[in-house]
Amino acid sequence: MASSSFDFIFLVVMLLLPFMAVAQTNGRVPVGASITATDDSPSWLSASGEFAFGFRQLENKDHFLLSIWYEKIPEKTVVWYAIGEDPTDDPAVPRGSKVELTDDRGLLLADPQGNLIWTSRILLGAVSSGVMNDTGNFVNSKQKF
Hints:
The protein is built from one helix and twelve strands; from the N terminus they run αββββββββββββ. The chain is an alpha+beta fold and 145 residues long.
């Protein structure tokens, strides 16, 4: 009888474990985390999973858009995307580009050769983490000194 109860509890915990892991992150992204533009790039989700931040592959399969989109709808509608210094430039980046959350400059987007394309321009303080929140914004959390 005890073995049967243990098996049931084990099964319930194993089924709920993925949901508990999502709940614990609350959309938080640690400094040093990065995403590289590939066919199967991961994304950073908001706590509810409503919004995602990452790379969306374009029709030209070798180009991507660093963006935020609605994750829970089939159309995956983009609500924001990164634009470089010149707003007339094409916002698409090549395969292998990388976005990284840094402690001193916030989000950095670089091409595959490491050339800076875009930054979130943190001006004061240091970044301790980032949060993809449920309003569709990716925000940097600053350290208190």
